[in-house]
Every structure is written in structure tokens, then in C-alpha cells.
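Example with several molecule types.
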Amino acid sequence: MTREIEFLYDFGSPNAYFVHRALPAIVAGGRVAFRYVPVLLGGIFKAIGNQSPMQTYGHIAAKRDYDFLEMRRFMDRHGIDRFRMNPNFPVNTLLMMRGAVAAEQLGCAADYIETMMIAMWEDGFNMADPAVWAGVLEINKLPWQELSAAVTRDEVKAALVANTEAAVKRGVFGIPTFFLGDEMWFGKDRLRDVVEAASV
Amino acid sequence: MTREIEFLYDFGSPNAYFVHRALPAIVAGGRVAFRYVPVLLGGIFKAIGNQSPMQTYGHIAAKRDYDFLEMRRFMDRHGIDRFRMNPNFPVNTLLMMRGAVAAEQLGCAADYIETMMIAMWEDGFNMADPAVWAGVLEINKLPWQELSAAVTRDEVKAALVANTEAAVKRGVFGIPTFFLGDEMWFGKDRLRDVVEAASV
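Resulting C-alpha cells for the full complex:
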């Protein structure tokens, strides 16, 4: 039996990108599947008074260096070799995340997610800019006109808000977060734990 | 060949206690050994402008709850069943940590560490109080008079400062921290990683 793990993500999180890159090899085992759940990390932070680790620990060089070391270890472990820090970080992800909800409705979520992850964490684009966003979609043969229209719709906006509020209600405080049923794990370094729990 | 991992600890850290309780089963495998290195966590924090996760994230209920959940998971995984939060937390650990340096010199470090860990994280004593500290030592048949004299000695004080400064120089920002040679891992949840690295 394949068990489904929810993967709450926001394109603004490099650690969500790392997880995204690590998942194919894990899924190939056939015991677990992942359902990507788009949420707005900025909305979660605002709701609970949290902020990114880079903001919290930006002034502590040793902590920052160590976080990068752990990124490097995760990349080495999972054969991730195209990451580069986005020079526009932190990027406002509202448009991209509304697009993710719209892409689910249009049936192109997998391609959309892959495209956004590459644009953010391999190509370093400023994806908060609507023109850049639409251009990236177009180049990658995604239905950019439909997506551009969809992100302005109230029901798309509301769906992203609903995902985000539901996440806060379940105790989410950061990204990436995983759920197996009601059980929660936070952080790329606990991907292994949730996969183990799902594989029992 | 048994490889030695340095375990930098301070009795004030519940996560150091969890690691201490998890180590016997790991050491029993015979492939790794641990060298306990006493450092003053407050000194590290002061040197680099860091503070405890409970201070940083105390106002974020979801984060705090999750940290406790991960404590619970670690306890379950390692069969740790006597932990209780010290009602005096945070406890000033200067005396205890000077005592740890003194206990190394007196050849009773293993007993001293076990006694402090129990007093702090199972019995909930206020170990910053010199009378409580000495009483706990006496009850546990440790050389409390020698230890009480030793912690006032300049060379003992200086040795703890030296350990702490050396840790800061190596990039330490919290406890527990592990070193395998010059490679560093932070946090109880990475105990598994350092043991794996040492077992290759």
C-alpha cells in the first residue's frame, strides 16, 4: 500500500526546493507518495509572529554558516547540484502561490511546480515580478494566459488563504512541513523521519 | 577501529540530557566512542549574540509545541522515560560546568556527569544553588569537598573559559554540538548523522 504524505510548500523556501528535488528518488521506492499543498509562508509567519531562520539568525554568523553546511550536506546526500541562492531573496511569493492553486485547477500543477522551482532556485529570477513570472511560464509552454487570468480570481485567492489558514490551525509554523494523517514533521532534515513513519 | 566523537555539552540544555541518555546504546555498538567536552552555553551565546530556542521562539506556540513533540519522539525512539522539565529553567550552569572540569581532573567525570544530568532533568533541582549542588554531590558519594574547593581555583575557571572560547572559534552556536575531527553537527536530531559519518 502506498501512503500519502502531504508536503506543504512555498516557492520562497530554499528548503522546499531541496525537498522537491529529493522526492523523486524517494517516491520511486513505491511505498510513499507526496501531495503538494501550496500555502503562503508569509501568511503563516504573519499569523503566528514567526519569521524566516535567515531573519531570526541572520546576525549570527556561526548559525548561518551551519545552516548552509546542512544545505550542502542535504544536496550531497540527494545529488542536488543546480541550486543557487536567489539574488532577489526574500521574494514575495503571493503571485507564484496563487498560480500554484490555479495550476491545480487547470491540471498542470506538476509542470508548474517544477518550472517555478527551477526559476527560483536554479535560475535566480525575480519571480515576484508579474512580467517575469508570465515570461517564465510562456517559455516553458505552460498556459500562461489562463494562469494569468486565474490568479486574479477571488476563488483562487480564497483557496490559497484557506490552505494557509488550515495549515496554521494544524500547527504549521514554517516550510517545508509534512503531514502523515494528523502527524506533523517540520524541516527538510526530517523528511527521512516522515518517510520512515509512512513506510512502517 | 573505534572513532571518537566530541560531544560538547552544558547541563543547562535538555537536549544535552537527551543525547546523554541516548549514547549508551550507541556506544554499545563498539564503532564509536564519545568524549564529553564541558562548555558554558551562556558564554557561547554571549560571545555570538545567540540565545536559547525557548527564548527565541517562546512567543510562537506552534514552534514551541513542535519542539516538545520532537523531544517526545526522541525520548520514544531512545527509551528515555524519566525526563521532566526543570521547574527552575533556565538554570545558571556556571558552577555545574566548572565542576565538570574539576571532575575530569579528579577522575570522577563520568559519575559527576550522570549525577548532574539526573539532578537537572529527572529530579528538577535548582542546581545553580551551591548548597543544593554540594548536597547532591554528597548524597551521590562524589568527593564534594574536593569538588567544592576545585571550582574556586583559577585554573579550573580558566579551563572552562578555554573550552568555551575554543568552541566559539570552531563555529559552535548551541548545545548539543558534535565534532568528528573538524566536521561539526548541531542538535540532538543530528546525532544519527554524526554516528553514521563516524561508522563509515
